[in-house]
Each structure stands twice: as C-alpha cells, then as structure tokens.
UniProtKB/TrEMBL annotation:
Pfam family, one: DUF6691
Keyword field contains Transmembrane helix: yes
Natural source organism: Roseibium denhamense
Domain of life: Bacteria
Record flagged with keyword Membrane: yes
Protein keywords: Membrane, Transmembrane, Transmembrane helix
Record's protein name: YeeE/YedE family protein
Amino acid sequence: MIRVVSAFLFGLLFGCGILISGMGNPAKVLNFFDIAGTWDPSLAFVMGGALIVTAIGYRLAFQMDKPLQASVFSLPTRAELDTRLIGGSAVFGIGWGLSGFCPGGLIPVLGLGLSGPLLTAAAVVAGMITARWLSGVRTGGKHAAA
C-alpha cells in the first residue's frame, strides 16, 4: 500500500511540476524548437533542473544498500545502442517536435479534455501497438523482451 501511495504522490508532484513550469502547453515546448523565430529557452532550464535532481537522486541511491521500497535496485544491464533504441528515440523526438507533447507532459493535461492531448495520446498508443506488432513480425510472432 505504501508503494501505491508514494507512486501517487510522486506522480502528483511530477504533474504539478509539469503544469507549473508550463510544459503542459505545447506552444511553449514548440517555441523551444523554434530557434530562428520565437525561441523560448525555458524548456532548457526545466531539463537542467531535472538533470540536477536526477544526479542528486542517483548519488544518494548509490550510497544505499537497497532501495527504500524494494529488495534490490533494478538497473538496466545492457549498454549497447541498437536500432530499436535509436529508432524509438527518433520517433519519440519527431512526435514530441510535431505535437509539443512528450508523454510526461501529456498525461497531466489529458484531464482537461482538449482535442490536442487526446489525439496525441491516441497516436502514442497507436505507436506502441505498431512497435509491438513490428517486434512480433521481426521475431516470428514472439515479442522481443522490452
């Protein structure tokens, strides 16, 4: 139960941060990419703040023997770059640049009932289904490990 409550509270904190920083507004995000026009550097500051918090969190976490709410740390074991990672990153970036929403910024604004976030969420789900289907086609019907 404590894990569910803490996940809810951290999700709520993240969503509030997204909304307070303005990252739920696709125009603000798209203006970051408009270097020759109405460039808005605030996204860089939000990302920089996130990197600082992450660096502190990792530093603290790696000083612990185990996580607070799990028996072991669950960290990625693969270090190589492959076509799935690079292709997925490219599709993510293109979708973010076209819509102004990354999944983290999309979720808090879904509750507003606006058509833009709903269409973007539908595109994200369609992309996930397509990726799973392509993974099954490539592996002969068996889905590759995520």
